[in-house]
Amino acid sequence: DKGTKVIHLVRNPIYMSVSNYQYHAREEVPLKEQWVKWQNPCQVRYGNDGSGAHFADYVLPALNETDVFPIVKRPVTRSDFANVANDCRSLFQAKDDLKNANFHEH
Q1: How distant, in Å, are the alpha carbons of 39, 59, 73, 96 from that of 65?
Q2: Reduced to 3 DSSP states, what percent helix, strand and coil does the chain have, rounded to the nearest 5?
Q3: Quick one: angle between helices 55-63 and 78-91, nearest 10?
Q4: Which residues contact 89 (CB under 8 A, 6 or more apart)?
Q5: Residue 10 above 70 pLDDT?
Q6: N or C, fewer C-beta in 10 Å, the chain?
Q7: Which residues, including other chains, have CB under 8 Å from residue 64's CB and lie 6 or more apart?
Q8: Is the distance from CB of 78 to CB of 45 less than 8 angstroms?
Q9: How far apart, in whole angstroms, are the C-alpha atoms of residue 78 and residue 72?
Q10: Residue 55: which of 43, 64, 73, 66 has the closest Cα?
Q11: What pLDDT sits at residue 49?
């Protein structure tokens, strides 16, 4: 969707790719990363039942702070978050062999 903004800060892409591969290729999920076994990456509300505060409420004020991000041409809106969440839902567990896969298995 035109106008949707995503911010991704990246270090050297080659080093990052090798590091990510080595980290995630481990057989056992690191203790601090156990959330990948149960977390739904498309969930936009906090809380186990998804009834808590909306993620956008926490990040929109910072993303729209022109002192922090002076290149912002248009405010990031709640509908931008909805578009990203919809894209996520269209991809996560979308293939038949991944219907019951968790975030880590994806």
Answers
A1: 29, 10, 11, 42
A2: 40, 0, 55
A3: 130
A4: 42
A5: no
A6: N
A7: 72, 75, 76
A8: no
A9: 16
A10: 43
A11: 67
Locus of tokens 């936009």: 44
Task: Return all residues near 70 (Cβ < 8 A) that are at least 6 apart.
Answer: none
Q: How far apart are the first and last CA of the chain?
A: 24
The secondary structure of 63-103, three-state, reads HCCCCCCCCCCCCCCHHHHHHHHHHHHHHCCCCHHHCCCCC
Mind listing the pLDDT tens digit for each residue in 37-88? 777 888 888 776 667 888 888 888 877 776 666 666 777 888 888 898 899 8
Q: What is the spatial distance between Cα 98 and Cα 106, in angstroms, rounded to a whole number?
A: 7
Place of tokens 């991704």: 8
What's the pLDDT at 87? 92
Cβ-based neighbour number of residue 105 at 10 Å: 10
Q: Which residues pair with 54 in a beta bridge?
A: 45
Instruction: Judge contact between 84 and 6, C-beta under 8 A.
Output: yes
pLDDT of residue 25: 73
The pLDDT of residue 69 = 60
